[in-house]
Design brief:
Elements: H1 2-11, H2 20-28, E1 37-40, E2 55-60, E3 73-77, H3 82-92, E4 97-102, E5 111-118, E6 122-129, H4 134-137, E7 140-144, H5 149-158, H6 175-192, E8 196-207, E9 210-213, E10 216-220
Antiparallel strand pairs: 1-4, 2-3, 2-4, 5-6, 5-8, 6-7, 8-9, 8-10
Length: 222
């Protein structure tokens, strides 16, 4: 795994701040699902994609964190519009890569999984209510990393949102798989060691019987 992590670090365009596409490649190394996607560089020809529609297009930059506010996201693009949508996005961000992904549909609430680094205690893993209202809900639980699947399950039980796993209004969310994902993220932090400053998966959603990381941000130490 150390060799895979080093190969990932060596491949980065910006050594301290990976973009979304690169960040998703990192979490994939630890078995965390991400949407099918490809990154297009400025000026590259757009070929017919093998990704299943519908599509979401995003500006893919290590320096642009709030994409929606800057018109950096186009949703519900189809086979007949994706090329034009890519061109539009490239006009808005002429120097940036564009990420084209399958737009996943999901049911149930969005969650967040994160890693923070304390100068004294090291890395801690967090799980909580995710999406655009994360800072309003403030429904989170923490453990030092790495943590076991059982510990991750206890974290989920601590959340005010935890009743959604008890067949709430017919939802069939898999708590065990989410716990395994939280534990995997904590293992990522442990394996990355001092290289990792911060990680955010927000949102992560339940789609086609798996938890899928729709947006991933990674910050590395200088």
């Amino acid at each position: 795994m150390k060799n895979k992590i080093q190969n990932w670090v060596d491949s980065l365009e910006n050594k301290n701040n990976p973009d979304e596409y690169e960040s998703k490649q990192l979490v994939r190394l630890f078995g965390i699902g991400v949407p099918e996607g490809e990154r297009l560089s400025p000026g590259s020809a757009f070929e017919k994609t093998s990704i299943d529609p519908p599509y979401v297009l995003k500006v893919c930059s290590s320096t642009i964190l709030h994409k929606t506010e800057l018109q950096g996201v186009i949703l519900n693009s189809g086979p007949d519009t994706v090329a034009d949508d890519r061109n539009l996005m490239q006009k808005r961000f002429p120097k940036e890569n564009i990420l084209v992904e399958h737009q996943s549909s999901f049911t149930g609430p969005e969650f967040i999984i994160g890693i923070i680094k304390d100068s004294a205690l090291g890395h801690a893993v967090m799980v909580g209510a995710g999406g655009v209202f994360t800072e309003i809900y403030k429904d989170t639980a923490f453990r030092l990393a790495p943590c076991s699947v059982a510990d991750a399950g206890d974290m989920i039980e601590e959340l005010a949102l935890s009743p959604v796993f008890d067949n709430f209004r017919g939802l069939t969310l898999d708590k065990e798989k989410l716990a395994k994902t939280v534990s995997a993220v904590s293992q990522l932090a442990d394996k990355m060691g001092d290289k990792l400053s911060q990680l955010d998966i927000n949102p992560i959603v339940f789609c086609d019987e798996e938890w899928l990381a729709l947006d991933v941000k990674v910050m590395l130490e200088p």
